[in-house]
Amino acid sequence: MTLVQMQPRSAHADLAHRTVDDAMEAAGPQVCDDMTVEVALAVTASSRTDHLLVCDEDGLCTGLITRERLSAIRDSAAYTDRLRLRDVLGDRGPFTSPMTTMAEAEHAMHYRRLDALPVVDEQGSALGVLALAR
Prior knowledge:
- By secondary structure, this protein is α+β, with helices and mostly antiparallel strands.
- The chain has one domain (16-131): CBS-domain.
- The protein contains six helices and six strands.
- Strands 1-6-5 form a three-stranded antiparallel beta sheet. It has a three-stranded mixed beta sheet with strand order 2-3-4.
- A hairpin with a 5-residue loop joins strand 5 and strand 6.
- It is globular and about 45 Å long.
- The model is unreliable at 1-10 (pLDDT under 50).
């Protein structure tokens, strides 16, 4: 019998092989983009979450909005009670695929200074959220 010495895997090597699918959280609350900012704040409070996934009328994910950003919008001078999520989200995204490696996703999140990133399928439906550990 021959002894084989095993080397422990580095954390970096693990990130290169793990995918977002391995680490993402359940999608959590999803709201429609025609919801007002005030109602969205109430949803974050009642669901005790820091973010909401925003979807269009077809159920496709258009982005993610945080409680912090919603509060800043509500407290701004330009706020009205008719302001809808689609008005404050801007462009679609950013998103990631469940097949993206964790190393790639973490790099993108650090580069864009994101705490959470929606995970979507090929059609654009929300599958979950990748959130950085705090």
